[in-house]
Amino acid sequence: MSSNQTSTPASYTAPGAFDGLTRGGVPPVAPVTRSKAAGPVLVGATIAMGLMAGLFFAFDVSVMPGLAAGDDRTYVTAMQHINKSIENGMFGLVFTGAFIATGIAAWLQHKAGRRQAALWAAGATLLYVVALMVTMGVNIPLNNDLAAAGDPSQIHDFAAVRTHFEGTWVAANMFRTALCTAGLLALSRALVLHGRGSR
Fold first, then answer.
1. pLDDT tens digits for 69-95?
2. Is the model's pTM score more than 0.70?
3. What residues does 74 pair with on adjacent strands?
4. Which of 110, 106, 147 is nearest to 128 (CA)?
5. 136-139: long-range contacts (C-beta < 8 A, 24 or more apart)?
6. Are 134 and 108 in contact (CB under 8 A)?
7. Rounded to whole angstroms, how far apart are CA atoms 101 and 121?
8. How far apart are CA 23 and CA 167, in angstroms?
9. Rounded to the nearest 5°, which phi and psi values hold at 70?
10. What is the DSSP string of 91-119?
């Protein structure tokens, strides 16, 4: 070997990337995070949304039409009891769980790189938020007004109490049914896309 030749130190190796760039000058692609919880959470969100859609639908097609066929006193008394009895832990769990699970499902799908599934789940979350707004802005205030009417034995004008409550509450509930049903369809689509992405 001639004396004017320099040798590369043994400790030196050419880097495959410099300053965050690959050999071709392209930033490296970060690996997609796969969460084992993404699928189960999406399934749970779909079930919760389906339960809420089913509950509202049951009021649309059976509870409210059945009460509508009765007299004013029966209507007011029955709705007071229904509104009181539905305030239980199971209903609260599903009512709030549908929102929480759907939002988390959208985030997990996005985190896992399933963009389309995430968009469908996000759409379902938005639909349920609107349903919550209707509930908080229309149905619950009407329920409170009905409760404020007092004990049925103390109510003198059942017709007025019923008229103030019935029409608006029924229409709002139908809207909630439509929103939750659309949310259920959106989550079902997200499930299909999640399944395809897992193959």
1. 999 999 999 999 999 999 999 999 999
2. yes
3. none
4. 106
5. 138/168, 138/169, 138/172, 139/169, 139/172, 139/173, 139/176
6. no
7. 10
8. 69
9. -95, 180
10. HHHHHHHHHHHHHHHHHHHHHTT-HHHHH
On the question of pLDDT at 11 being above 70, the answer is: no
**From residue 10, how far is each of 2, 7, 14 by CA, in Å?**
19, 9, 11
pLDDT band at 197 (very low <50, low <70, confident <90, very high): confident
**Cα distance from N-terminal residue to C-terminal residue, the chain:** 58
Q: Which helix (H) or strand (E) holds 194?
A: helix 158-197
Cβ neighbourhood burial of 29 (10 Å; 0-12, 13-18, 19+): exposed
Residue type, 59: F
Cα distances from 149 to residues 69, 144, 152, in angstroms, run 21, 9, 8
